[in-house]
Amino acid sequence: MSALIWAVSGLLFFLGLAAVVLRRQLLAVFLGMELMVVAAALALGHEATRAAAGAEGFVAVLLVLAVAAAEAVVGLTLVLRVHWSGRPAEADSLRELRG
Amino acid sequence: MIEIPLAVYLLFLAPLAALAVGFFVTRPLKPEWTHIPILASCVVVTCSAASLAGMVYEGRGLDGTLFYWMVAGDWSVPFGVRIDGVGVSVLSMVSLVGALIHVYAAGYMKGEPGFARFFLVFHLFYLSMIGLLVSNNYVQFYLFWELVGVCSYFLIGYWMHKETARRAAMQAFLTLRVADFGLMLAVLVILGLYRNTRFAALYAVAGALPAGLLALLGVLFVWAAAGKSALFPLYFWLPDAMEGPTPVSALMHAATMVTAGIFLLVRSWPFISLVPGLPEFIAVVGAATAIFAALLAASQTDLKRILAYSTVSHLGLMAFGLGLRHVGAGVFHLVTHGFFKAVLFLCAGILAHAAHKSTVTVSEVGGLWRKMPLTFVCFTAAALSLAGFPFTAGFYSKDAILDAAFAHGGWAVAAGLAIAAGSAFYIFRMLFLTFFGSRADQQTMEHPHEAPPVMAVPVAFLALGAIGVGWLGHGLMRMLLSGWPPSVPPPGLTEPSHAVSAAALMAAALGAGAAYWTTMRLPSWDWDWRRERPALAALFAEDLGWRRVPAACVSSAVWFADKVGRVLDHDSWDAAIEGSAGACRRVSEAGGRLATGSISDSLWWVMTGAAALLAWAGYR
Predict the structure, then answer these.
(1) Structural domain of residue B276, as residue ranges?
(2) Rounded to an integer, what is the distance from CA B144 to the centroid of its chain?
(3) Per-residue pLDDT tens over the stretch B490-541
(4) Are residues B562 and B530 in the same domain?
């Protein structure tokens, strides 16, 4: 059981990672990030169900979810700003940090 | 705490007050009155110097600190006064001769556009020279030493619209810098090792100094003195310094400033006399300078240049006397020389003034003794004194030095007699050519006129001095004993034997006779050799080729500095800076290429970094 949950969690994380590094659309990259966060939260929640653990794990999971929600607000706003600026909402259109 | 007499304060305060009044009040309001406060200050200073001389004569010299100039950690530099025999004997001469030349200058410079500037700098020089003579430590001495050099620069270049004057000023200043560097090194060595530069303290430890250090200090002092006193290798600035107005030449480049080098040697004598061979070296340099310059003086035609070479010659004679360890004789000659050389210069100035020029040559004047009798009498008195005619001042002081030469024997006797003969030759040649001049084709001045009283009276007084100060020789020696460093044998004048006097007189008579023969009996010989042997004349015009040597030294130093600059600065240092900057730029450009600004690239880097961190953590 535990192994299955870890596997699902790992699969989700790497799917998210793949989306982050391979996809170009900002929305897809953002989705991948959220997926990675959720994968980590899943693993943490699973480990928190062990008998010896206290409630701190669940509290942390809730905190992570709350932070992810807040992050979604900021991230989606950024994506919208890029869209409104007339550029395609793609990772390669943001090059202001070019050295 | 020593009680400092009022006269000491007046030595500084009177000139400072006069300079302040002159600069802030009379210069802007009434520039032609600038000399009034300054002449008043000269009177005060001369009286103060006389009272100090009286004190010292009674053996009540003093060495005290007025205030502390610099204090830092364990060392300090006081600003003090040392009123001792050496200082005051020269001080009395400087203050009196200087004051009379100030009076003369008031007449000579009248109507000049830079009258106020001239008098202010001239008086600043007077103040600096007095400060130099009463300094009680080397740092203070160095301050005034540099100040007199700066004033010399300003006054040689006084007629700054003249190219030659500007060049001469620059040459004098730079040559003096070379010499001053030696004194600066000596002061720094003393300051670094002893934290104290007071003469009194250093005299006490002179005997205990290590031999190497003594030799170093001695050589540095001689180096400094050679430049300031125009001794042989560095003398060439002095004849060119005659571009300045005549009072400047008389006061600074004959009577006082150039003797500062000799004075430094006397002040440092406790060190120099302990270095084996160094006094003899000074004597040799002095004798060589004296003979060489006498030869050149005999070949010059410009009145002031003749006198300038004569000054070089007599400075060499003073160094000769010092080097033969007759310090008293050297100081004595310094004092008498101040009087008679000032007279000679001021008479040359009167002639130039009468001709309305800055200087005249012997071919432009002649047969003036009828038209300018007072100038003629004064000039003759000073010339006799310079040549060592019996019972004039120069007779006593030169015989004292010749006595030293005879006591030393050998080459010194020959050198001393050669100097005596040479001095007599060039000064009588000048006298005959200027005041008699039987040459038919000699142009004479349009309307020669005697100097106005403001110029004639000081010259007459100085001429009396040129005759009379020699009688004070024994008083001078008694003054010199005050504050004389105990480690050095006390100065004294032995009564020159009749043989010495007779030999000196014979040599002088020989020189004078030769001058009479070449200028009066063979009237045009003095010009003909120049015309018939242009190569020889050219050789004399460039000081027997010596003038080329410093020029070559300077140009090769410039060439060398250029090379060094090219190799060190351009090829090495600049190359290192530019190379390292270029390397930095290339590295950062390479790094900058990684920063594409693309988010996916950044993410890749994040991934790689995270993976590397994980791998490292797993490995541990």
Answers:
(1) 6-546
(2) 12
(3) 777 777 778 888 998 999 999 999 988 888 777 777 777 888 888 888 888 8
(4) no
